[in-house]
Amino acid sequence: MAQDGGELLVRTLKNAGITHAFCLHGGHLDPIFQACLDHDLHLIDTRHEAAAGHAADGYARQTGRIGVAMATAGPGFTNVLTAVTQAFLDRIPVLFIVGAAPLRDAERWPLQGGVDQIAMARPVTKYAAQVTRTEQIPHMTAHAIRTALSGTPGPVLLEIPIDVLYARLDREVPIPDSLTPRTTPAPGDTELADALALLARASRPIIVAGGGVLLSRAADAVRALADATGIPVFANNKALGTLPPDHPLSGHSHTNIGVLSAMGLGKPDVALFLGARFGMFTADDKLLPGDCRLIQVDIEGAELGRIRPVDVPIQADCRQTASALAKSASGMTWPDWSDWASAVHGVSRWHETAYAEAKSLTPSAVHPYSALRAIMDALPEDTVVCGDGGEASQWAELASRPRAPGQYTGHGYLGCLGIGMPFAMAAQVAHPDRRVVCIIGDGSVGLNIQEFDTMVRHNLPVVTIVLNNKAWGMCVHGQRTMFGDNRLVVTTLGESRYEQVAEGFGCYGGYADNLEDIRATVEAALASGKPACINVITDLEAVYGDTGTGSSEEAETGRPSSYEDEVEMPYYENLKE
Questions:
Q1: Residue from 17, 114, 415, 529 carrying the catalytic annotation
Q2: Rounded to whole angstroms, how far apart are CA atoms 185 and 84?
Q3: I need a labelling partner for 68 at 20 to 30 A (CA). Which of 50, 284, 444, 558 fits?
Q4: pTM of the entire structure?
């Protein structure tokens, strides 16, 4: 029986164990969608290609498997390119399949043609290629999947022109098997011995878990290592929950390393980085002093020693390395670091004390930290929380209580707003029996507000909670600090009822402008069994990190937020005059 390109593609995806894909319809890709019907590959169609791309990214983070997104030619491709870029910077394995105008019409200005999509995608993918013959589809799809999952994970992109996809073949084309790598690189014995020896000589050692722990599913191995040695564990936002918050060795967020220093409790002298890169927040001595000895484990050799010299570089898989270290460590005698570990754990929830008396300065509004505490109190312990927005996501991460990596997800290196709702949809697809909550700012919710329709159509009971301060809050606070209260420009928003928009799509809607109503409103949304939106009116005057005793930067790093002879800039180091 004749097979078209869509049939060949979907059979290959099924052989790779792929069960779900995120997409938005385009006629260029109809053979794929038709084949999905025949082979029970579940399609979650969004209302914007960017949402489909971010959802595929979020699905990979939640499952550890490759995510799949499909977008049509031209504007479909350009709409999804931001999601490709985020996956590239965060090293997330996603297969992007995009349509294209017919090969036969090259250089003839066809509909949605005339753009070199592969050239645009190549700088932000591990592999990007055009399929030029229908019989190549299985081979090139298999190659793309292996590339996405091998070594440093990352996005790959296949462009399939419409005439290649619609063409029918009368002959049998073999579908590859064994498309996913079955082995991961292990550390060498010498490197393991050097790492253990350096840790054993430390006075104040720490472990910092990163994205490599999430993607290699290494949390249990890291916990075993921590328990065997007594070394406390911090994590970046990809790996939050590597140790649950009540574990005595949990330091929670890696930004808490700076809190230790600010409180005079000491600085780490040896740090084991597991799949966490040096760069944002870890590039200089903001958190780790310059004389801190470093052990770095990363599957990508080029990351070892980038920005900071490393004493023991280990190019290997995080799970393999943590497991090997834990096995050896269990047979060793370790120093008593209980006082240091107790100090680390003590500051892991510093904000609970710092914001104990957090009060709104604005009538008919709630302090965002108090709102988040009430929200978290209403959620089941295994709820997946997806944060989005500027300060909204920061408050969410601060108050989050993840018990495993992936239970809290937020922004990565791209700092891309609009990820929260797609990430939450993906989490609900990946975990249909768990509750999923999206915490989002009123600025960010506007980027994908149409996805309430997707949640309703696909029966994804995500609860989206909008922290509504009627502004791009982080931007307002930055403009006030740098230019003055009378210099606000393009940073304020209106009196919008986001829950009513969601109700128009068929969701449950809730509203709260006082602290006493928040928990009951969240519980009612959860009990509705429907996708829901809760509009929580929060105080714009509450600045993230400002506890009344200093700025957010001072709270996290112990440094004052401004200096003489410097020009202040948002997000980055100030300019020196």
A1: 415
A2: 26
A3: 444
A4: 0.92
